[in-house]
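Please predict the structure of the following assembly.
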Amino acid sequence: MVFVMSRPVYSLLAGVVLLVPFASEPAPIILGFNAQSSQAERDLEAKFRSIPEPARMRDMMQRLSARPHHVGSPYDKQNAEWIRDQFAAFGWDAKIETFDVLFPTPVERAVELVAPTTYKAQLQETTVSVDPTSGQHAEQLPTYNAYSRDGDVTGPLVFVNYGVPADYEELERRGISVRGAIVIAKYGGSWRGIKPKVAAEHGAVGCLIYSDPRDDGYSGGDVFPKGPMRPPQGVQRGSVADMPTFPGDPLTPGVGATKDAKRLAIADAPTITKIPVLPISYGDAQPLLAALGGPTVPGNWRGGLPITYRFGPGAARVHLKVKSDWSLKTLYDVVARLLGTTEADQWVIRGNHHDAWVNGAEDPISGLVAELEEARALGQLSKQGWRPKRTIIYAAWDGEEPGLLGSTEWVEAHATELDQHAVAYLNSDTNDRGYLGMEGSHSLEKFINGVAKDVEDPEAKVSSWKRNQAALILGGQADARGREDLHIGALGSGSDFTPFLQHLGIASLNIGYGGEDDAGIYHSAYDDFYWYTHFSDTSFVYGRALAQAAGIAVLRLANADVIPFAYTNLGETVKTYVTELEHLRDSRAKEIAERKKQIADGLFGIVSDPHAPTTAPHVDSLPPQFNFAPLLNAVDALSGAAAEFDKAYAAWRDRPPVMQASATASATKLAAVNERLVKAERAFLLADGLKNRPWFKHSLYAPGLYTGYGVKTVPGVREAIEQGTWQDVDGEIARVAATIQREAALVRQAAADLASVR
Amino acid sequence: MVFVMSRPVYSLLAGVVLLVPFASEPAPIILGFNAQSSQAERDLEAKFRSIPEPARMRDMMQRLSARPHHVGSPYDKQNAEWIRDQFAAFGWDAKIETFDVLFPTPVERAVELVAPTTYKAQLQETTVSVDPTSGQHAEQLPTYNAYSRDGDVTGPLVFVNYGVPADYEELERRGISVRGAIVIAKYGGSWRGIKPKVAAEHGAVGCLIYSDPRDDGYSGGDVFPKGPMRPPQGVQRGSVADMPTFPGDPLTPGVGATKDAKRLAIADAPTITKIPVLPISYGDAQPLLAALGGPTVPGNWRGGLPITYRFGPGAARVHLKVKSDWSLKTLYDVVARLLGTTEADQWVIRGNHHDAWVNGAEDPISGLVAELEEARALGQLSKQGWRPKRTIIYAAWDGEEPGLLGSTEWVEAHATELDQHAVAYLNSDTNDRGYLGMEGSHSLEKFINGVAKDVEDPEAKVSSWKRNQAALILGGQADARGREDLHIGALGSGSDFTPFLQHLGIASLNIGYGGEDDAGIYHSAYDDFYWYTHFSDTSFVYGRALAQAAGIAVLRLANADVIPFAYTNLGETVKTYVTELEHLRDSRAKEIAERKKQIADGLFGIVSDPHAPTTAPHVDSLPPQFNFAPLLNAVDALSGAAAEFDKAYAAWRDRPPVMQASATASATKLAAVNERLVKAERAFLLADGLKNRPWFKHSLYAPGLYTGYGVKTVPGVREAIEQGTWQDVDGEIARVAATIQREAALVRQAAADLASVR
């Protein structure tokens, strides 16, 4: 999977330092350090920064993407062994951990138009002569969606736009049912696994998903190999398991998929789709879409094919067949350690996956080669005698693509230790040219802003932070001039941070560059070395920038005197969430009341066009008022605690060195502060998890039940309001408020401890 | 040309009656009448309403669109004579008035791609076998743009989106110049004549305009003849004269193009284009666009062809040749009168054009047949002994398509009489299915709302007013529930109301149904009887509804005791314009200051992608504060006068009949009120007209200099602020304020006169 960053990036970044230090000013004290230790850290970072080399990243990408390396393939295992050996050569304690997971691979696939004319879909990506790896068909996974159930169905075909719930409301208003039908949806608009889930909920018997050329084909530029965009036979593979219920091995929810783990029967696995699904190319989709009857779709449903897009079905009927090999496959997670000194029991974890759908040069090797160069640089410093305070763990996960398998199983298997020791998790995945995407726990917002201010953008020759800020201001957010920190996005899902953050409550970040190049090779055979070195970060200078950003982040987390969380940012962000939720309730109430009035007044009948009749939409019941007081009180408590912590931290940081009396006593007290801080993010865990998906335990962040990648913040409350389950709202508010109060108490205690450090 | 109504219509309608009368309530008193005269009027309207017949409209459409009938064609003259004879048969005093105008028709046309490959454009609409008139090639005008200068040019090709000024700013930011180039623009986004004007201003040597399939081709539905949309070889003809400077004959600005009128030399005619122009189909455009190099265009520039849209030029070079026959042609305006009784010197004028680009079933015959049925109905009432108080003039204009020639020359030739006698002008043009579009002078807003409340929508079986209101509410304007009158749009240009309203200051309305059907045959050979009777108002029930609406409006204007202007609506609307202008100044100031700061901070350099570099945009100087006081004072004066008028009108209307003492004295005083009201809209005329375009004299309404169809309200002030000519603003405010003060004084005097009627 991938950290998705579309172009332009303006909308993904959100907020900034009023006073940018001039070159002549001394560098500011790094968060978590004091003047003295900050200077030592900067000296270390200067050495670190010079080590990563673009040429090495290029060579490693060529090696790692030379053959298809999906879960279960020979090259996946060979890559894991090679990565382990690299870590070892760099001076790390590296090993491979294995898990055995359900990973279906296709045996039979068919898509055929059977009426009113016939067309048999190719379901095959063509060899491109200039691209040396595109023809490795014998090793390539065929184009398919993993965790589609087996099926052989025939039915009328209906076009459902992106296949999200709002699209089915549009169909319903026109009296078009998908019951017994095969739906065809465009990729995009949600995580792909949402499409068959919603289709099945509406009674469809099969689901096709295709890449429309308007979204990532010729509309955006020349197609591969002339340009970076998706060619007519290019297909997006991908998992369609119900990841928002739980990620990882479908047979071992909540526990590591070790050899002897207790497994569900396949028939009982809740995240496997209810209907068969296949992805197809736009070359294969065009004859199917052109065969549809029914009314023309609205403008925002139309794609870039030279046809009239219609709802269907008319006479169009399709046959869909999917059959997979459902045997278990072995995952190879590479895990490497650099042991800490004084705080060896506190772990800073860094990861990027190594498995791909095919050759995967961009996804995931572009991020992995940065991680490997960080590891080499840290190893080199280590060989020169340096050692981190805290233990650093670098991981190269297997099985991310089918559903975060490698990271999830490892996290589940090591849950007890991680709960005890994990300080933070730093993830990357795809890396391209442009802006530094930063998402994560808001307790790390100030920290990652500080890192971005200290990494140079290789094109603009200003800091990555300043370039992000410029894009935000030009995108219309003039207030980005006045903020000390740019807002970072909250994490939904789509990469390996999910089990760390949302299952175990480990503060997490996801970073990577992107936003300047369009691409149309996602999860296809064309995501390979030829493509990446022609159309993305061709000189690997953004690879180096990512290695610098992530490496500096790891160094700071591992070396800081005080673990660099900042709760003021967290408090402010949670406050905006609560305000959003209050507005959401009010806007939904207003919208529902207005809709009821429109229906009562018969307005939908009055405007219905007899040539294309429509009915009134469905409307929820009116929401009652909710008791937001517990949340508001909790936010106030957190803000108060954060202010106390800031004050104690500033006093500690600015204390003159001459005052340092007993170094040992001081260190002991600081250690107590840090032990508390390690657990700070855990305070947000809900003991019972989210409603109907207990695996997800974080009260602030989760992938949306109907968005998949997209985050829902304060998900228990937000989804209850969005979905109109009013009776749940007050209870969810209380549950979340309790976690925020727990966090506030922890932060207040940490502040008191820190204030006592002399 | 045409009254453009796109689908959905929500955005064109804007506001509504709180209390809808119940069926059991008595019908309200019609505006301009008292209880007694209102009842008589309603009885008359009931008779009138039952006369127009759909079947007759269908027959007339078939007759009038049987052959191409553009200016100068044999069938244009035959149609005029037939229409005159119809009016005469209906009992009207009908005649034809002729004018001799410059109307170029094509002699040579060529468009060829000459590099990097070659393609010769067909420039020919193909015959459609099921469509009996599509093959009348001998009589059809070839596809061309009238008033393109002659030219034979070759140059690089550059794509300019819709070819409006903002598009050239985008090109400039990317360093792409059109100097010496031929530009290719999509139809849409502005009136077509704007495209070559702006292209020439930027140094282009030629201009192609094509119909993109996303705008009116296959994206919207099946193409003709299977569906209503534009087929690959369909072309939109049309005038490209600089109509926002002045419409009508380019050689006789301001005076009627009579035989002996003084004429400009063609070389001196300012409204003829500066560069040659040709329209082409998307079939012909695709090879040209596919040949372009340069960067991919932004998403909002892309169309529906299955190609990557690029800016150009790359290697693409095009040859364009245009040569016309520039001889004068004769216009045949049909003008018919029904003489009034007591107020025969007050004229109510109704018009619709009869000329077309080819067969023109929709444009203009769909509107014309409604007008003819109104005329037949009025004639029938007249034969039964009824006569209007005021004189009714019905006109069928020639030469509207090339640039409102027939109406403009007639208005210019009869300016003195019209200034003296004209009460109002009511226009229609194209008519389709759906919503009653209403635009015009805001002194007629309440009046036309009253008409719309008394016409039944043939599909929804509620009033047209109520259906419009429903669409507005569903479109998000919940406040449309609470208003007494729906807001009507202001008039820009694009049909024959322009000379009446904007040159002579005659209160005008433009009405017509539309908004339910998509169409792609505008100004093509496929706008014919076959198309209209398969894909538009196929049963002519909306033709009947238009005849009812327009006929009732004419009857009310002709019979009212007090001419039915309502100044409260006018005052409110003008007040919103002034508020808009104040906000426009402030938002431009804010935007310019922000842009200057962005440039000063170097942000555009920071975000420029070295693979596709962009520069900072142009920025105007900061606006000073302007003196809006004269406008605000004038608006207050007008609102005050309007309140006085309303009070006097209500007192007159509600006076018990027993109080009517001397009928003669009363009638004389009422006549004095009406004489004043006839001139009320004239108060808005600027003696010197708008800056650089003195033909346009109305201070409130004009087509935009860079929009063409689209209105600019308070144009002198608005365009000065939009274009950054700050030094003009205060002077323009003063000029407009003086006209509003004049209007206020007139209305106050009319109120005093009306109050004195005993």
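Chain A touches chain B at residues 213-214, 218-222, 227, 229, 296, 302, 304-309, 433-434, 459-460, 462, 466-467, 470-471, 473-474, 478, 516-518, 594, 598, 601, 603-611 (CB under 8 Å). Confidence is low (pLDDT under 50) at residues 2-22 of chain A.
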